[in-house]
Fold:
Amino acid sequence: MSSEIPLQEIRGYLDQYLRLPEIPDEPGAVNGLQMENRGLIGYLIAAVDASQATIDGAVAKARHSIEARAGDVGGGWAPHAAPLLIVHHGLFWDGNLPVTGRRFRRLGALFEGDVALYAAHIPLDVHPEVGNNIALARRLGLAVDGWFGTYKGIPIGVHGRAPANLGTRASLVEALGTQLAVAPGSVHLIPGGPETVSRIGIIAGAAGDMLASAREAGLDTFITGEGAHHTHFDAMEWGINLIYAGHYATESLGVQALAAHLSNRFGLPWEFHHHPTGL
Structure:
């Protein structure tokens, strides 16, 4: 397979695979291709956020690619393999603003490095093959048997029965810390439900407000990234275990699964750029 793929070919596939036209989202998400490049993609970079650190890392990788390819042809000019940066949180969450300050710095760096950028927010959360929720369930060995909770009319969370090795709250918390590669103590348990867990639900990110939906679905344990202060009392009074495993951490798996999927389809190498927030 060719070592470089037209950006628009990848874009067309992603738009269809992620079902962009049919998945609702917040206006600032601007799902899809947010920055194009000169037209060809040689490799993929996955990251959670389109932050300056992420962009600078992608640009540095692109520069290294130019230098390496120039060396292969004796130090002269060589076309470079440009990257497609795939993120969960894109460039435009702060709205329709002038291209000044940090927006200028971010966009200018992408232009300079010939880095294309594609964002997928809710479409990636809910995807049945590479979504954040499915990916975390897979890491935990949780066989998904249904969906719960709704976001703008679509089901968003997944649930299933706890595997034998994750039958207690303590073992589940430990497994989350291991699978998400977070620092010890980062996974926060609000122990409102039974010590022995049975029915587990997952919604990545900031879904503490979905606790009532998890309770209504008959779940005894709900895993998400973060939530409001009052959810501690909600969980304790409603009799459900609530586990906050980190917004960044719970949304780090989908972009990796998506990049791996694209790598297999298009024959492009990929890597994950890790910029954890601790939140």
Observations:
- The longest strand covers residues 143-151.
